[in-house]
């Protein structure tokens, strides 16, 4: 992986962030690669200790990579962010509880996710350039990745001050506040690493450490304690306003820029956590209560928009600083019930994967990355890295726990099922992720049931991009027990899995969903073409429609007009994310299903006819289904 280097050097397991141009911002894949390395080295006697460092002088890690969270969240998809946070928090706990010494070398900026990576390990090293902070309240979030654990343990009321203001800690402040342990000048780090690799002895580090620099914050401790001693945000604001010090005035100005709800929740979190019962897991579980809700009910998306996307630095927070209802804070911190953060790790499964094309290949690759053992078979497609190649479909399913198929149509699914069902072990689950007709899905489920197997029809939404990013949505039909078995795999390959009902219900949901998708894309393209001919600027149209009654996924998340809205295939010459011929296939399935149950679907029928004309007669084959827009641009009214 180009963003992170993981290797064993002498006695050291060495993890280096290599994304220096992005200030080593932490992506989901980087988190998972780190966790996988920690798991591999835990019982490896050749690895005496672990070093985590980063390339570049500007930053150890300037936070989490939140661009994908914003993109999915603004489209109404909150599960991607929740999955990212769940898995990242589990990794943070693993770092804090690791049985071997871990050394983090934190130069330059270490913020947010960087604190989660480097701030909980056993030996935290800073240098003359270190600048550590928790800036989340400025983007409508709260200090997370275990940041609340460190803030609750900081001296006096320093935790509240750091959490609310995002004040940067130099090396002396970081050690004083409990965010670091040792000071070693950065020019001595190469020698430190070399000696650690040679000896595997943590005493090398403690012997090389220099005295900590002075902490300016230590001299301000009394002022901080007095100004941040209130029980709630309003108390802190009142204390700051009542003070005539320059420090109070500057601090108040900072707080008035930040999200009121985020700051109030941060204070409440620190107060609840502070005390002898505090553990890293307790802090992470409380943080996840907020993470789970923050995109839907907080200011996170607005904060990211203002600071990073539009960069207008003018966020419109949900609440005013002096009129924040206490109930809003309580709601963010309520227990999550069945969604509570769990630190339990899923067991590794043996998986057979048949059909490794544009969709199946990335899905299988994500399962391998998560640690599962995957054996694959495909007549033409290459094996993804880490997938073992089988010589036949029956060989791929021998002895596995779950078989996943991703096939072109119902006839091929039936043929493959006839081959593999007799070869599967009793109790295994056959999960078909193809988009096929309902009758084929139910026929295969009947065969599987007769053979003592679980069966699921689980077509997907999200296209090749979703398959690669692990952000697919699964619509699942079949038994509850089979769904429970495969649900952890859905969480790896996608961001959401909905159990729609009995066998065939998943295909029914997909067919209905994609009929809506085809119809709305045509309507969206027609509207843009009409706007052009009426002289209406496309961006102005988007600004109106995307925030009013014309809102739709095809407009807001997959806009067919180049240069308007989020990035989409329209910005890449309509190279397919979801090809027109695949949309035609789904629309044909919808009309086949409608005919079988005598359902009147005139819009679906017209959409099918338009896509048939586009694909078969107008050069639409091989183009994205949103390429309907240039089609309409060039046509007049018949």
Short account of what is shown:
The chain is α/β, with parallel strands linked by helices. It has 29 helices and 18 strands. The model has no long low-confidence stretch (mean pLDDT 94).
Provide a descriptive summary of the structure in words.
The chain has 638 residues and is an alpha/beta fold. The protein folds into three domains: 4-339, Alpha-Beta Complex (2-enoyl-CoA Hydratase, Chain A, domain 1); 350-503, Rossmann fold; 510-633, N-(1-d-carboxylethyl)-l-norvaline Dehydrogenase, domain 2 (Orthogonal Bundle), CATH 1.10.1040. The chain contains 29 helices and 18 strands. Strands 10, 11, 12, 13, 14, 15, 16, 17 and 18 form a nine-stranded mixed sheet that branches. It has a six-stranded mixed sheet with strand order 1-2-3-5-7-9, sandwiched between helices. Strands 4-6-8 form a three-stranded parallel sheet. Helix 1 (28-42) packs parallel to helix 3 (79-96) and helix 18 packs parallel to helix 22 (463-469). The two termini are 53 Å apart.
Total tally of structural domains: 3
- Oligomerization category of the chains in this entry: single chain
Strand content: 5-15%
| N/C terminus separation | 53 Å
Mean pLDDT: 94
Features:
3 domains; 638 residues; nine-stranded mixed sheet; 2-enoyl-CoA Hydratase, Chain A, domain 1; N-(1-d-carboxylethyl)-l-norvaline Dehydrogenase, domain 2; globular; Rossmann fold; alpha/beta; NADP binding
């Amino acid at each position: 992986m180009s963003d992170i280097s993981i290797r064993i050097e002498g006695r050291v397991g060495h993890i280096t962030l290599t994304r220096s141009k992005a200030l080593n911002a932490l992506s989901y894949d980087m988190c998972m690669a780190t966790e996988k390395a920690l798991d591999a080295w835990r019982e490896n006697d050749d690895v005496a200790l672990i070093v985590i460092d980063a390339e570049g002088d500007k930053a150890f890690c300037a936070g989490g990579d939140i661009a994908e969270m914003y993109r999915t969240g603004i489209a109404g998809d909150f599960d991607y962010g929740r999955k990212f946070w769940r898995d990242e928090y589990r990794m943070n706990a693993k770092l804090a509880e690791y049985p071997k010494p871990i050394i983090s070398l934190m130069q330059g900026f270490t913020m947010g996710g960087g604190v989660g990576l480097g701030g909980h390990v056993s030996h935290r090293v800073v240098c003359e350039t270190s600048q550590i902070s928790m800036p989340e309240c400025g983007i409508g979030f709260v200090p997370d990745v275990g940041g609340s654990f460190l803030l609750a343990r900081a001296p006096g009321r320093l935790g509240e001050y750091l959490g609310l203001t995002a004040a940067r800690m130099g090396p002396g402040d970081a050690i004083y506040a409990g965010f670091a342990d040792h000071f070693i000048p950065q020019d001595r780090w190469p020698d430190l690493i070399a000696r650690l690799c040679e000896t595997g002895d943590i005493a090398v580090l403690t012997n090389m450490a220099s005295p900590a620099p002075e902490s300016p914050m230590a001299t301000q401790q009394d002022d901080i304690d007095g100004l941040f001693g209130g029980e709630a945000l309003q108390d802190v604001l009142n204390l700051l306003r009542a003070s005539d010090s320059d420090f109070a005035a500057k601090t108040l100005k900072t707080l008035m820029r930040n999200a009121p709800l985020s700051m109030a929740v941060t204070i409440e979190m620190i107060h609840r956590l502070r005390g002898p019962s505090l553990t890293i897991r307790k802090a992470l579980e409380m943080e996840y209560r907020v993470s789970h809700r923050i995109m839907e009910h907080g200011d996170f998306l607005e904060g990211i928009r203002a600071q990073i996307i539009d960069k207008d630095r003018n966020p419109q927070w949900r609440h005013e600083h002096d009129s924040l209802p206490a109930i809003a804070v309580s709601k963010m911190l309520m227990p999550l019930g069945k969604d509570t953060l769990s630190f339990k790790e899923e067991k590794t499964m043996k998986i057979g994967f048949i059909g490794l094309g544009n969709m199946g290949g990335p899905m299988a690759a994500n399962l391998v990355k998560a640690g599962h053992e995957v054996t694959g078979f495909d007549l033409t497609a290459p094996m993804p890295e880490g997938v073992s190649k089988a010589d036949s479909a029956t060989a791929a399913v021998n002895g596995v726990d779950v078989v996943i198929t991703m096939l072109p149509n119902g006839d091929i699914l039936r043929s493959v099922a006839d081959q593999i069902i007799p070869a599967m072990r009793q109790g295994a689950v056959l999960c078909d992720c193809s988009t096929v007709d309902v009758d084929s899905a139910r026929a295969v489920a009947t065969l599987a049931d007769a053979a003592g197997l679980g069966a699921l029809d689980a077509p997907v939404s999200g296209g090749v991009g979703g398959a690669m990013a692990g952000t697919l949505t699964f619509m699942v039909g079949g038994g509850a027990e089979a769904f429970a078995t495969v649900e952890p795999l859905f969480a790896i390959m996608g961001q959401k899995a909905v159990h729609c009902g009995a066998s065939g219900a998943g295909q029914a949901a997909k067919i209905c969903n994609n009929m809506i998708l085809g119809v709305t894309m045509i309507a969206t393209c027609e509207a843009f073409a009409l706007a052009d001919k009426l002289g209406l600027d496309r961006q102005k149209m988007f600004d109106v429609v995307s925030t009013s009654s014309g809102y739709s996924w095809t407009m807001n998340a997959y806009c067919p007009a180049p240069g308007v809205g989020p990035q989409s295939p329209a910005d890449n010459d309509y190279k397919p994310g979801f090809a027109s011929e695949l949309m035609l296939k789904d629309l044909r399935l919808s009309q086949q299903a409608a005919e079988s149950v005598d359902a009147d679907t005139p819009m679906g029928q017209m959409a099918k006819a338009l896509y048939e004309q586009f694909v078969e007669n107008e050069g639409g084959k091989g183009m994205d289904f949103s390429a309907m827009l240039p089609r309409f641009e060039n046509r007049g009214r018949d």
